[in-house]
Amino acid sequence: MGGSTEQGMFAEERKSRIIEFINKNEKATVTQLCDKFDVSRATIRNDLNELDEKGLIKRTHNLGWSYSNYWALERGYKG
After folding, report:
1. DSSP assignment of 4-71, as one string?
2. Per the CB 3.0–4.6 Å rule, which of 21, 32, 43, 74 could disulfide with 39?
3. Do 37 and 28 meet the contact criterion of CB atoms below 8 Å apart?
4. Cα dihedral: 2, 64, 77, 54 (round 10)
């Protein structure tokens, strides 16, 4: 984990920024989010699980997805 400017932020702020990042990029890997927010894989996995349970993102193995992109892929949309 490198010297990210996101280091040291509170959990709720981090989760809000995770949502923003995923919506902007359509998806994000656990590794990308660990690097960006300078936190452990367990922390990111917990954040993604919580955000998924709240219906704010769609969590799949090692990824967090924006809902619009996830459902397009599920329906076979290749856009």
Report:
1. -TTTT--HHHHHHHHHHHHHHHSEEEHHHHHHHHT--HHHHHHHHHHHHHTTSSEEETTEEE-HHHHH
2. 43
3. no
4. -150
Q: Yes or no: say if 18 and 33 are a contact pair by the CB < 8 Å rule.
A: yes
Q: In 10 A of CB 44, how many CB atoms? A: 23
Token look-up 């892929």 returns 73
* 8 A C-beta contact, residue 47 and residue 4: no
The pTM of the full predicted model, rounded to 2 decimals, is 0.75
pLDDT above 70 for 69: no
More confident residue, 59 or 2: 59
Chain centroid, CA 27 distance in Å? 7
Structure-block tokens of residue 5:
């400017």
